[in-house]
Amino acid sequence: MPELLGEVTHRGEPAQAHLALIRARDAFVRTRTALIQHVRGTLKTVAIKVPSCGTGTFHRVAREHVTEAFKPTLEPILDVLAEIEWKIRAFDRQISELAQTSYPAAARLMEIGSVGPLTSVAFVLTIDDPNRFRRSRAVCPWLGLVPRIEESGEQSPQLSISKTGDAYLRRLLIQCGHHLLGPFGKDCALRRFGLQLCERGGARRPRSAPSRQSHGSSRS
Questions:
Q1: Burial of 95 by CB count in 10 Å (0-12 exposed, 13-18 middle, 19+ buried)?
Q2: Which of 163, 172, 206, 213 could cysteine-pair with 119, CB 3.0–4.6 Å?
């Protein structure tokens, strides 16, 4: 029945190109993670543990712990990691510029604590035309950020989120939420509201939700 089918909207070519930029950055990030795990796992087989460090500096820190026997196989990977890190930083600069110059709505979203250029631009590009949602409340179900419903008789169990829709944007939003509610989240009305929701969230509420309010944030 045609009336049961939803409308399909098509983004313009510039929006598609900008969204491809964000997806390319994510591909680099996932590749970086896989290569770091490979290097750590390889060195662990000979009882070498690379010290904890940021992903951006891993290639430099790990290089100091690679033995002569593993240099032919691991140093090329570390060289690739260094190149990937440079590419990710270049993408970050482009995305930050897009948030400031091409998407005014993204710049407004960045006024929210813990929301940076990447999340704001990804949100604007993924939502595309906000007028296609009758109510703002419809956005959360569209992104799979509402609990699943499996009612049976008098039972209405508390379930996890449905995880429908765009998985990448949902992951970014969840990361922002974790940062906002974490120990480094900036004190604001949204943070206090979120902490109140955590307190009444029942058995499935985040156990790591902090009870104190702290300042400072890293933008993502």
A1: buried
A2: 172
Q: What is the DSSP letter of 99?
A: H
DSSP 143-211: TT-SB----BTTB-----B---S-HHHHHHHHHHHHHHHSTTPPP-HHHHHHHHHHHTSGGGS-TT--S
Q: Are 143 and 170 in contact (CB under 8 A)?
A: yes
pLDDT score for 206: 54
CA 108 to chain centre: 19
- Please tell me the pTM assigned to this model: 0.80
Query: What is the predicted pLDDT for the residue at 205?
Result: 55
Output the CA angle 97-100-103, nearest 5 degrees.
105
Structure tokens at 89: 């930083």
Smallest CA-to-CA distance from 113 within 7, 204, 219 is with: 219
For residues 110 and 133, give the distance between their C-alpha atoms in angstroms, rounded to a whole number.
22
Q: Look up residue 137 and give its amino acid.
A: R
Say if CB 219 and CB 147 are below 8 A apart.
Answer: no
Residue at 151: amino acid letter: E
